[in-house]
User: Fold this.
Amino acid sequence: MSWLLNKFVEQVTGVTGALLVSRDGLKMAVSGLGTDQADKAAAWVASLHSLARSAGTISGSASGGFRQAIVEDDGVLVFVMSADHAAAGHPTAGRGLVGTVLGVLARPGADPNTVGFEMGLLVKSVADHLVTATRTGGRADEGR
Assistant:
């Protein structure tokens, strides 16, 4: 998937980096970020995604309608979007799969509409392949 993210970073104006992480923070593919930067970004993106998804409960939305979160800082725009179809109601839901999250970093002058639109196109084009099996084999799984 890194080649796909590399292409995305090269082609979308203002984008400086992108990463695909599992919803539990496991880094899966990266473009435009160093190893330490990508590790920090993976944890942050997964956490922000979790917080943003839970915001629907405040408004009473039970549909899981989270689409995108954008954080603006003086030096960067950070976009976070669900990147899979592992939500409730999709055929893959509840089958031992963990969903994924697409995080994108862009320059402050980047057009949020363009970046968000391009992220949506990327996710739609490969979403059925953007789930990962739940991790097994750890101490919590012993004796099962």
Observations:
- Confidence is low (pLDDT under 50) at residues 86-94, 140-144.
- Strands lie at 15-22, 27-31, 68-72, 77-82, 97-98, 100-106, 132-133.
